[in-house]
Amino acid sequence: MLNILKIFSSAPWSAKFGMVVILFYAVISIFAPFIAPYGETELLGRAYEVWSDKFLLGTDNLGRDMLSRLIYGARNTIGLALTITLIAFVLGSLTGMIAAALGGWVDQVLSRIVDVLMSIPSLIFALLILSIFGTAMPYLIGTIAILDATRVFRLARATAMNVAVMDYVEVARLRGEKQGWVIRKEILPNITAPLLAEFGLRFCFVFLFISALSFLGLGIQPPTADWGSMVRDNATLIAFDDITPLLPAGAIALLTVAMNFVVDWMLHKSSGLKDVG
Amino acid sequence: MANILKIVAQRIVLGFLTLFVISLLITFGVELLPGDLAESILGQGATPETVKVFRTELGLDKPAHLRYLSWLAGMATGDMGVSLANKREISELIGLRLSNTIFLGGFAATIAVPLALFLGILAALYRNSLYDRAVNTFTLTSISFPEFFVAYILILFFAIKLGWFPGISNVSTDLSLGDKLYRTLLPAATLTLVVVAHMMRMTRAAIINLLASPYIEMAQLKGIRPMRIILRHALPNALAPIVNVIALNLAYLVVGVVIVEVVFVYPGLGQLMVDSVSKRDIPVVQACSMIFASVYILLNLSADIISIVTNPRLLHPR
């Protein structure tokens, strides 16, 4: 505990700010049902009511409490982004390590597939897939996870390549260890650090990507509260000089900024650079 | 020189190979759906007759390779079939919108590229200063903002509060160029804000990288002014990475345009594509994806080629 506090106090202000914000979001999303004044999909009043004591941030286009939806939205959007990032990491790092450990045609096939997937803009690819499969949740998760796994694959393969040529890996092979053992016990522990730093960046990417899709009406489907679609549903309010629709958008931005600050600091620290700039 | 031609030729072949694979992916993506596409889209209530008509319209009754060939021939000749939603010719739907999208992208690029280069060079010149730190924080922030957030903030301030610009960019062909520029200024500004940060950061990195080399130190020791060192000594050598960054960001613009068009209700290709996805109008989506993907790949390809051609080490092999 003391150690954590020490690391925290040594961080620059931007990283401190980032960590506090991330903690805040985590608390909100975990305890959403206890914090939110009303239910996620409860219809409470007229549409587009203004900010008042009853509805702190007013109501949305269907008369649901904006604040409650904002709080539940944290849970849904962040939860989904985390799930997708985790799947992408398992998929990407596993295939990446396999490609690096086996080499040969397995590596060739996997790498070429990834090359093709990465040569199309992600959003366009996602739109194409969603138009064919529809926007059901499993397809949404699968599509984004695969797209994101390509980036993880590149990193995992590159770092695992460096490890795979090490003497201790060769020793393990000569000792007669199986491929799976080599990957799990020799390669994985040595590429965990760079992969962890990448996790933050990939999370930001996925998070922004889902929000963009939801904003386009193709992501998380109603009535589930979600920040991207909340912006879309209430965007008309902006024409009346009301900033309410900007709140969910701002919530997205704040979390990604915070995440980027923390990742920036982690990368800076792990690259061994002294604080010069 | 023959060497460099060979590398460029290889890249071009590879690029077109990628395009080919992607066209395959786009057409055969339909096959990936478990079960029947017609039934999936029309729903449970569809009669066998409507399903049959639908299948003929999409060409699903023909074997896959024939369907691909006729689609490819159609794309090449400009006959992309008809939209499922309103039965209009896709080429007719796309034509005007494509030029609108190119107009918006080009407008954004003409603001963004010089601005990013200028700010990036300044950041490299005054690195580790307050300005540089401010730039660094700004870039981190702006790459974290969703495009629609930036867009709505601009709308709120410049369209609603100040009333300087229209919040909706409904351009049409009969507008004069000035009018068109005026109406697309806000979307173009949004795109600029989104890409400038990234471009600026990479310009800065490319130049700082070079400033560490011995010949720059030599120039400094000779007493040349910093601005001159950057413009005359560093910039020509940093050109390749910078041009690369520009091309990559233009490719990024191609995609960023989708969301910005939806926010500003701009009649472009991106908006058409999003509309068609929600209507599951597959032929239109396929045509749009192919166009977007081609532009993206061709821009990346030209970035590659430019960085090969401008690399002095490849130009004068030992």
In words, what does this structure look like?
With 277 residues, chain A is mainly alpha-helical. Chain A has helices spanning 2-10, 13-30, 32-35, 66-102, 104-118, 122-133, 137-164, 167-174, 179-215, 227-234, 246-270. The longest helix of chain A is centred in the N-terminal third of the chain and has 37 residues, at 66-102. Chain A starts with a helix and ends in a 7-residue tail after the last helix. Mean pLDDT of chain A is 84; it is low at 273-277. Chain B has helices at 2-28, 37-42, 48-58, 64-77, 90-125, 130-144, 147-161, 177-211, 214-222, 226-263, 269-279, 282-309, 312-315. Chain B is mainly α and 318 residues long. Chain B contains 13 helices and no strands. At the A-B interface, helix 6, helix 9 and helix 11 of A face helix 1, helix 6, helix 7, helix 10 and helix 11 of B.
What is the strand and helix layout of this fold?
The complex is a heterodimer of chains A (277) and B (318).
Chain A: H1 2-10, H2 13-30, H3 32-35, H4 66-102, H5 104-118, H6 122-133, H7 137-164, H8 167-174, H9 179-215, H10 227-234, H11 246-270
Helix pairs in contact in A: 2-4, 2-11, 4-5, 4-7, 4-9, 5-7, 6-7, 7-9, 8-9, 9-10, 9-11, 10-11
Chain B: H1 2-28, H2 37-42, H3 48-58, H4 64-77, H5 90-125, H6 130-144, H7 147-161, H8 177-211, H9 214-222, H10 226-263, H11 269-279, H12 282-309, H13 312-315
Question: Outline of this structure?
Answer:
The complex is a heterodimer of chains A (277) and B (318). Chain A is built from eleven helices and no strands.
What is the CA-CA span between the terminal residues of chain A? 30 Å
| Tally of DSSP helical segments of chain B | 13
Helix/strand/pairing class of chain A, anyone?
A: mainly alpha
Report the sheet with the most strands of chain B, covering strand number, pairing sense and barrel closure: none
Mean pLDDT of chain B: 81
SSE order of chain B: HHHHHHHHHHHHH
Class from secondary-structure proportions of chain B: mainly alpha
Give the number of DSSP strands of chain A: 0
Number of strands of chain B: 0
The H-and-E topology of chain A, N to C, reads as: HHHHHHHHHHH
Fraction of residues in H or I helices of chain A: over 70%
Distance between the ends of chain B: 11 Å
Low-confidence stretches of chain A are: 273-277
